[in-house]
Amino acid sequence: MQSPVYPDISLQPKEIEPGLSVFFCPKSGGMWIPLANFLAWKETNPAAPAATDSPVPQPDDSRRGALVCPESGRLLIRYKVGQGLKFQVDMSPITGGIWLDQGEWEALKYKGLHTEINFFSTSGYQFKIRAAEYEEKLEQTFRNRVGDADYAKVEAFKEWLVNQAQKREICAYLLHHSEPKKAEVTVDEKAPRRHTGSY
User: Fold this and answer.
1) Is the pTM value of this prediction over 0.90?
2) Domain shared by 114 and 16, yes or no
3) Could you tell me the residue range of the domain that residue 47 belongs to?
4) What is the Cα–Cα distance from 151 to 129, expressed in whole angstroms?
5) Are residues 53 and 117 in the same domain?
6) Same domain for 42 and 140?
7) Is 184 within a domain?
8) How far apart are the first and last CA of the chain?
């Protein structure tokens, strides 16, 4: 098989974990993980531990173009990883194989996501990522509007509110008192007006 990044370079077999054999690109440092190899390894390592060493630098694949599957010759599809990792993994829609650039396996392992790679392409997994991104953007927008000092106060109140048994009543009370008050009506305004004109 040829490297998706450097088609003139042949991929070489390599074992990256006990029982997990991949095809390694000696020029780019990336690797092709056949789905069958990954599933067989995962079956014997269903809860492989995350890395305990220092965080690894995050790879940046934002400028890389689309890659071709070394098994099927079809274009690979990119999927977001989430959990604070900004890179995307490339997966084959035909064979299910996975291409990881240099450093991505180590980053996934540090986050404990290296045993979940086969789920990255599922709609449920991608939906959770989009929901998390939305919450992150919403929080950042709110923080920019109110400022760091007031944001910290709101966050402290939110943490307190979560553990309150009557949080719904508290929120309703605050909402009621946050609405603009209507102008008070005087006694004269309440009394019916008499018609003083002529018919």
Assistant:
1) no
2) yes
3) 12-122
4) 24
5) yes
6) no
7) no
8) 102
